[in-house]
Design a protein that fits this description.
42% strand; 11% helix; four-stranded mixed β-sheet; Gyrase A, domain 2; 124 residues; mainly beta
Length: 124
């Protein structure tokens, strides 16, 4: 699972195995240990709306995903889901959950063997 945070946007990408695990178990989590503290992020099935939702509590970023969105996600061609969550101050938090695709140009130094085949055959 990968997380990208920039300004008021939160993007999470997950591999094939993680998509299967999430569709089956409704929960996946990652943690980065900094020695004196850690930073965690997770996906949870459920939430209080029909859309993606997210919060940040006790050093954990949680994205909530309605069950209806991911029904059969591990067996269909749907790439992902997005939502602009309204915030109390009139701003929005852009949320994106998507399948992680292989980079075709092999510039990434990470193992991509569990990523989805890239339908565009390019990497950005």
């Amino acid at each position: 699972m990968k997380i990208r945070i920039k300004g008021n946007s939160l993007r999470i990408r997950i591999s094939k195995t993680e998509v299967d695990d999430f569709c089956t178990n409704g929960h996946i989590e990652e943690k980065t240990d900094f020695g004196t503290t850690s930073f965690a992020y997770k996906l949870l099935l459920g939430g209080n709306t029909d859309n993606l939702d997210a919060d940040f509590r006790d050093g954990v970023v949680t994205m909530y995903v309605p069950a209806e969105l991911v029904k059969d996600w591990n067996t269909n061609e749907t790439v992902g889901f997005s939502y602009n969550k309204p915030l109390a101050d009139g701003e929005q938090l852009f949320l994106l959950l998507e399948k992680d695709f292989k980079c075709i140009d092999n510039t990434m130094m990470e193992d991509q063997s569990d990523n989805f085949d890239n339908p565009l055959h390019t990497c950005s």
